[in-house]
Amino acid sequence: MRVAADADPHPDPLPQAGEGAIGLRSDGQPLEPAIEAKPVVLEHSRAPEKMAADKVRCEACPVLCQISPGKLGACDRYGNVDGKLARLDTLHLVARPGVDLVAWQAAQEGGWNGSLLSSGDGDAPVFVSGIGSGTTYPDYKPAPFIVASQHEGVDLVTVVTEGIFSYCSFKVKIDTDRYLGPEQATVRHLGEAVGHVSTIEYGSQFLSLGGVHHLTGGSKKEGRVACEMMMALGNKQAVELEIEGGARVVVGADRPPVVDGVEERRMRVGCGSATIGIFAQQWFGHVDEVVVVDDHITGVLSEHQAGKFLDMAPTGIRVRGRKSTPGRYFQVANPGAGWGGTDITDPLSIVEGWDAAHGARPGLRLLMVSTTGEDAAWFVLDEQLVPRPAEMPDAVRRVVARIGENCEPSLCSVLYVAGAGGSLRAGVTENPVALTRSIKSLLVNVTCGGAPVFVWPGGGITVMVDVARMPANSFGSVPTPAIVSPIEFTMRADDYRALGGHMARVQRLGDVLAAGGWRALDAEPGVPWPLAATTARRAP
Ligand code: SF4
Questions:
Q1: Is the pLDDT score of 197 beyond 70?
Q2: Does position 292 have pLDDT exceeding 60, yes or no?
Q3: How does residue 52 score in pLDDT terms, banded at 50, 70 and 90?
């Protein structure tokens, strides 16, 4: 649910210093009574002499657009509104779980009522996200919003910005057995190279999309197309991709993949060997042989350890491909869109023959099935040991149906990876390495649009976040080209002071709300409250 504030959009990417700009503790005392004298830094650099008087210049990214009255900048995020630079999207607030947004909004009618205690417990009712907050890249001035709030009596500070990221990409997990293309193959969008095929991880094909190489290292068109594709993916839209030597696939966060025009429904229950292991006991007594067809590991029940455990008799079946271990075969066919991610449509094409000397016999009952149960066939060997199609017994049909029942729905998962270890840190602190260290030592909770991130170990601040957990339309772009995405750093107020934070720019949450120009929305389901996640890191 979204609730929009009545007030005008935020008039400027930077909040004005002055009244309410010094952070206050819950007891009304300043967080930092005074700071050392510093060189005077302009809110805006001087406009170029040749710029028309009615234009405004945006300094939120290196493009430095000069915007005519009533017009937008090159990224459509800023405009010249009545002679003033305006960030056209409103600042997005994320409501604390349990806060009734409609009632809360009604309580604010006519302006912020001055209390953080609308729920009566002192906890901040909303979290200021980076969405719509504005940008200060390359962070030669403090972040647009540095907000003081409280959770369970703990004074916290959240530093909020929309980062501009050239070093960013999307890792897409596609739940499918279908062959999408060779590993390392180039992935194209609108004819331009935008990524490559990565590894397969147990029923899912990974793609790596975007990244600085495609954004800046190729032609201008490649960079623009890659950037537009990335922004769409981040905003949970469907994107069509073409894999060289492989399939056309449509992917989007939390959507089923569409491979060569066919929507994928089921993720396989496991590889062929795993499927044999899971269902062997349920087949026992109803079959003499089961072959689970799989592009990677095809399973043969009578030879498999699961069959040996049931003391099943040999069947003399000879399966194509390279035998790995008993009952497990590699490369029984080529990859494709047929049974179990192979290119076969006739399952018997992977059976080379039957050896009567090793157990083949007339009347032998054979089930062939794929790893999703979507393809299955039942055969009985005739007097010449030729498999003949026959009506599948109900008991076997039920187990095949159970394979399908155990398949999870096929989805695409879209994870955004971005490096925030550069100048963005200067918007947080005058000693950037202190932020890096504080994140690594878990003093600082990093979120993207309020959604939790995974911070990669090692150097820098490389974060990874599931875009499905971020609010809608969290991503933007600028024509450098680069991606614009929200990022927030939340920590205890004392820790912010200790790491050299811009204490003079701390605003109370109440002041941010009173200024208007925001909209509040519910968090995506299951997203933890960022302020609670921060205080939970260290006991008071
Ligand atoms: S591209 Fe957008 S952010 Fe960059 S200067 Fe122009 S209006 Fe501002």
A1: yes
A2: yes
A3: confident
Query: Is the CB of 64 within 6 Å of ligand 1?
Result: yes
Tokens of 10: 């935020």
Residue 161 CA to ligand 1 center (angstroms) comes to 15
Asked if residue 88 has its Cβ within 6 Å of ligand 1, the reply is: no
The atom number, within ligand 1, closest to the CA of 57 reads: 5
Show Cβ contacts of residue 181 under 8 Å, excluding neighbours closer than 6 positions. 187, 197, 243, 244, 245, 246, 247
**Nearest atom (ligand 1) to Cα of 484:** 3
The closest alpha carbon to 195, from 203, 186, 204, belongs to: 186
Q: Is the CB of 367 under 6 A from ligand 1?
A: no
43 alpha carbon to ligand 1 midpoint, in Å? 16
Question: What pLDDT sits at residue 13?
Answer: 32
Question: What is the mean predicted confidence (pLDDT) over 180-195?
Answer: 97
Q: Read off the pLDDT of residues 337-366 as tens digits, 9 standing for 90 and up.
A: 899 999 999 999 999 999 999 999 999 999
Residue to mutate (ligand 1; options 57, 64, 78, 84; most atoms within 8 A of CB): 78
User: Is it the case that residue 393 has pLDDT exceeding 50?
Assistant: yes
SS3 string, 361-412, reads CCCCEEEEEECCCCCEEEEEECCCCCEEECCCCHHHHHHHHHHHHCCCECCE
Burial of 26 (0-12, 13-18, 19+ CB in 10 A): middle
